[in-house]
Amino acid sequence: MTPIAVTIAGSDSGGGAGIQADLKTFSALGVYGASVITALTAQNTKGVTGIHDVPPEFIAAQMDAVFSDLDVCAVKIGMLSQPAVIETVAAGLDRWKQINVVLDPVMVATSGDRLLNPQAIDVLKRVLIPRALVITPNLPEAAALLDAPLARTEDEMRRQAEALIVRGARAVLVKGGHCEGDESVDVLLAAESFTRLATARVDTKNTHGTGCTLSSVIAAALAKSDDMETAVRNAKKWISAAIAAADRFTVGHGHGPVHHFHKFY
Fold first, then answer.
1. Torsion of CA 49, 210, 81, 141, to 10 degrees
2. Does 212 participate in catalysis according to the annotation?
3. I need a surface site. Which of 41, 77, 80, 202 has the fewest CB within 10 A?
């Protein structure tokens, strides 16, 4: 059977993040990718200059078209900027009985531009987080979800992961890329397990789309029947290699993309 994953996210006109990054990632990992576009963005490596939200009813139509025909094995969710969009996506997941759901709670782009309406955070927490197999917040996103200060240590990252579990998450991968130090450390907390994931930190400004790509790697692995912890472990290694290879590209004048096809060229 062909492994199929669907990305439900925004489009990045610069090609480094969002739908474009997700589909590149699925292809690089041998997974067929389909998409449900939630927003159009006008952006490049330097920032976001505009966002055009897709109407909720058309998002529902995309979901129904894809899930009624394709045998979907996993779903990655990225940019959902409005409360009504979040409600629509949650209803679609229920309607099509999707359980292998990876939620990247995208709030701010690498450039610093806000991508999530502040009023939507509560809806995201209440409606969508409990439906995800795993959520993948970075440090600012975890802090925003908890209305808490930014975690500065691994212990604080673990405590914030625990707090998100208490609030309804089934498993949490807190990404520590915003910390300092020689290692880039993420922590994965599930109901009965804790995993520390560390790789050498790479000195590069080309990190655009890192979060989108990591969550897509996890979804691709789930689509190929990996268990969640194995999927996350392998995703950490894969994204680290993609970041390490990012400087092979010269793309734009800001934060360039990671190298989604680093294993091939």
1. -120
2. yes
3. 202
Domains in the chain: boundaries: 4-248
Catalytic (active site) residue 177? no
* Whether 210 is catalytic: yes
Of 179, 175, 177, the closest CA to residue 187 belongs to: 175
Question: How many other C-beta atoms can be found within 10 angstroms of the C-beta atom of residue 264?
Answer: 8
pLDDT (tens, 9 = 90+) of the chain, 265 residues, equals 899 999 999 999 999 999 999 999 999 999 999 999 999 999 999 989 999 999 999 999 999 999 999 999 999 999 998 999 999 999 999 999 999 999 999 876 665 556 677 778 889 999 999 999 999 999 999 998 999 999 999 999 999 999 999 999 999 999 987 666 678 899 999 988 999 999 988 889 999 999 999 999 999 999 999 999 999 999 999 999 999 999 998 998 999 999 999 999 9
- Highest CATH level, class, for 4-248: alpha beta
**Catalytic annotation, pick one of 211, 213, 236, 256:** 211
- 140-to-22, 61, 84, 109, 112 alpha-carbon distances in Å: 22, 32, 23, 11, 11
pTM exceeds 0.85, yes or no = yes
State yes or no: is 88 an active-site residue. Answer: no
Tell me the residue length of the chain. Answer: 265
* Residue 209 is among the residues annotated as catalytic for this protein: yes
CA distance 44 to 170: 34
254 is catalytic: no
